[in-house]
Design goal:
The protein has 193 residues and is mainly alpha-helical. It has 7 helices and 3 strands. A hairpin with a 2-residue loop joins strand 2 and strand 3. The radius of gyration is 22 Å and the shape is elongated.
Length: 193
């Protein structure tokens, strides 16, 4: 059983942290305790405990480290190719190597972040299913609805709608959590195993 803590914050939030199941912490904000009922809080805690049980914190840290290693490795190869083959520098690393490597790290890093965030969203769906299994499907649905009411952007009135960016934000490949509407639909449509 992980330790459970409460932290001061006005918004509804919770997280799990720790390097292994035997040394983990589930933290819940005071805002979450104020904005949700006991059933919804139980589902959120079940979601976070599922992260602990699945070792998601360590998995994400390891994945980020491995991906960063590949980014650096391939960026160095690209820098070397640009410096030696294209610019035909024969001694050491020239300025072409460093510039090409830096630009390659930025581009490859962006692509790597998309992969890591996709995996994070996948783990969030699994944690939602775990929360539904531990607390009950109805409680998880209610918790997702409560979060959606608090965090999902509201429709903008009339003339202001032209300035909205909601559609762009929903398609962002760099989000670590899935849109709450998708999480809600997934829990309500599919049977949990």
């Amino acid at each position: 059983m992980p330790e459970v803590g409460i932290f001061q914050a006005p918004e509804a939030n919770a997280f799990a942290t720790g390097m292994n199941r035997n040394n983990a912490l589930v933290a819940i904000s005071t805002g979450l305790l104020q904005h949700m009922n006991n059933d919804e809080i139980e589902a959120v805690i079940g979601h976070e405990i599922t992260h602990v049980a699945n070792g998601d914190m360590v998995t994400m840290a390891l994945m980020q480290g491995v991906v960063n290693t590949f980014v650096y490795f391939f960026a160095s190869i690209i820098g070397h190719v640009v410096d030696r083959v294209i610019l035909q520098n024969e001694r050491g690393h020239g300025m072409g190597y460093f510039i090409a490597q830096m630009l390659a790290q930025i581009a490859l890093g962006f692509l790597a972040s998309m992969l890591v965030m996709w995996f994070s969203r996948y783990r969030e769906f699994k944690a939602d299913a775990g929360g539904a299994t531990l607390a009950g499907r109805g409680k998880m649905i209610s918790a997702l609805r409560a979060l959606q009411r608090e965090y999902e952007p509201q429709a903008l009135p009339g003339q202001l709608a032209a300035f909205g960016i909601n559609a762009v934000a929903r398609k962002n490949c760099l989000l670590s959590h899935p849109p709450l509407g998708r999480a809600y639909c997934r829990i309500t449509k599919y049977q949990l195993s």
